[in-house]
Task: inverse folding
C-alpha cells in the first residue's frame, strides 16, 4: 500500500458523488452519509457516522429508498468510513455482502505499463455514447427491459454530460467493430476510472489495456496526470500489472428492503 492523501481515497471510495449531474441522478446528504440514486441504482457514500447513529442512518436511508420506489442500496465502506467496525454493524442490521463483496482502490501517477494495441476513440456523438453503454450492458448481462430503461436515461443525460465537460466515454475497436467501453471523470486530483467492459469474444486482445492508456492520455492532456479507481476482482490484477498501486479497499454491503 502507498501513502496517499485523503483526497485520493475519497475520490476512489465515493465515485457516485462525482458523476455528472443528469436527469436520472440525485444526491441526498444525511448526517454522516450521502445517498446517490441513479435510475434503479442506489449507493451510500461518504460514511462518517457515530457508533450510536448507525441504526438510525440505515432506517433513514431505507425511508429515502422507499420514498423513491427503490428496492435496495449498496453501502460503500472504505478506509475513510467511520466507525471502524461499520461493516460489522451493518451486517447485524441485515445488510449482506454484495457480489463482489470487496473492491480494491488503486492509483497511478505515471504512464501505465504496456502499449495501446487497438484503436480507441472518445465518444463525441450521442450514437457513440449509447453504443459504448450497450457494450457495458451486454458484458454484464442486463435484461432487455432494463437496457431499454437505461437507453432512454442515457439519451436524456447526453446534453447534460456534454455541457458538464468533466467526463469522457471511450469506444475501443477491433477490425472496425466496437468491442470495448470505458469511462473517466476528471477531477482536480486526477481521472476517476468509472466503468469499463470488453465483449467476451474480444477479450485477451489488449482492449482493456488500450482503454486504460486512452484515459491516461486524457488525464495528461487535462493537466492532472493521475488515475484512481475502485476495481473489482477481475480488473484489479490487470491494473496492478499495468503499474497501479494499492491505496486500500472498499467493502460493499447490499441492503434489500
Result:
Amino acid at each position: 500500500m502507498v501513502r496517499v492523501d485523503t483526497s485520493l481515497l475519497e475520490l476512489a471510495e465515493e465515485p457516485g458523488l462525482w458523476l455528472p449531474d443528469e436527469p436520472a441522478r440525485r444526491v441526498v446528504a444525511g448526517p454522516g452519509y450521502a445517498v446517490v440514486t441513479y435510475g434503479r441504482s442506489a449507493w451510500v457514500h461518504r460514511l462518517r457516522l457515530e457508533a450510536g447513529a448507525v441504526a438510525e442512518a440505515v432506517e433513514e436511508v431505507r425511508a429515502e429508498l422507499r420514498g423513491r420506489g427503490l428496492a435496495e442500496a449498496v453501502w460503500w465502506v472504505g478506509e475513510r468510513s467511520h466507525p471502524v467496525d461499520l461493516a460489522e454493524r451493518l451486517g447485524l442490521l441485515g445488510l449482506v455482502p454484495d457480489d463482489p463483496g470487496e473492491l480494491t482502490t488503486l492509483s497511478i501517477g505515471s504512464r501505465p505499463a504496456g502499449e495501446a494495441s487497438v484503436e480507441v476513440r472518445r465518444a463525441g456523438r450521442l450514437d457513440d455514447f449509447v453504443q459504448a453503454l450497450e457494450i457495458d450492458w451486454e458484458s454484464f448481462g442486463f435484461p432487455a427491459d432494463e437496457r431499454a430503461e437505461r437507453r432512454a436515461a442515457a439519451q436524456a443525460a447526453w446534453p447534460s454530460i456534454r455541457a458538464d465537460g468533466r467526463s469522457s466515454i471511450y469506444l475501443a475497436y477491433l477490425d472496425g467493430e466496437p468491442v470495448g467501453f470505458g469511462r473517466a471523470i476528471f477531477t482536480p486530483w486526477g481521472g476517476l476510472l468509472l466503468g469499463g467492459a470488453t465483449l467476451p469474444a474480444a477479450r485477451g486482445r489488449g482492449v482493456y489495456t488500450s482503454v486504460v492508456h486512452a484515459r491516461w492520455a486524457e488525464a495528461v492532456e487535462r493537466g492532472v496526470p493521475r488515475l484512481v479507481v475502485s476495481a473489482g476482482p477481475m480488473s484489479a490484477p490487470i491494473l496492478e500489472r499495468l503499474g497501479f498501486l494499492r491505496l486500500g479497499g472498499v467493502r460493499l454491503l447490499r441492503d434489500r428492503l
